[in-house]
Amino acid sequence: MKYKKTLIVMVVIILPVLFGEFTYKKSAGAHPGSTGAPGDNTCAKSGCPIGSAVTYNDTTVNKLIFSQADSTYLPGQTYTVTVRTQNMGIQRFGFECQSLKDATNTDIGTVVITDASRTHTLAHTIASGVRNSVTHSTVGTTELSPGFNEWTFDWIAPPINEGDIVFYYATKSTNNSNTPSGDRVFASSFRIKPSPLISINEFIDLESVNVFYNSESNQIELNYYLK
Predict the structure, then answer these.
(1) CB 117 within 8 A of CB 140
(2) 133 with 39: CB under 8 angstroms?
(3) Closest listed residue to residue 186, CA positions, set 89, 126, 68, 97
């Protein structure tokens, strides 16, 4: 009889610890692969509890801001990415964002964390390989103003022209009730294209060009060879 009493006490102690760990993991970042990108799920289907279906491309709630105004990139350059969400009556928010090469849906670019207290990186594997993303930390779930939150990080473009690149991102709005009821997921995407300057640089690389001034003829001469 004494053994049974001891066992009951242990169960009572352990269960709250396990529950607390589960709650912490939910608030400390999204489930990896929850952006709704090709080959991935959303938070509604990847294991985290959710009370409603996913809403896609609602720009009144979700918005990605790319620091290059014309949404183009140059190889190797660093850009600032901001994921913003706005949903009145909501007190806690979460997000996940990843960048994929449009032609192959493979991981592209490099994330640089600039606010380590509010964001961190994730990695997960699917059939096509490893995908990296950035998500919220526990501190980053708190609204910055009533019904509003945003997260910022840097993104380094690939070293060569990789064609169109798509950022897939999703945000979660929760009423902080500790239940899935009333929570919502919003998924969107944002496309960037190679800068027109990339084409100019590639053209120059394929040429052998010499420009010089001929003092005898008082002319500028251009010699080039098409490889």
Answers:
(1) yes
(2) no
(3) 97
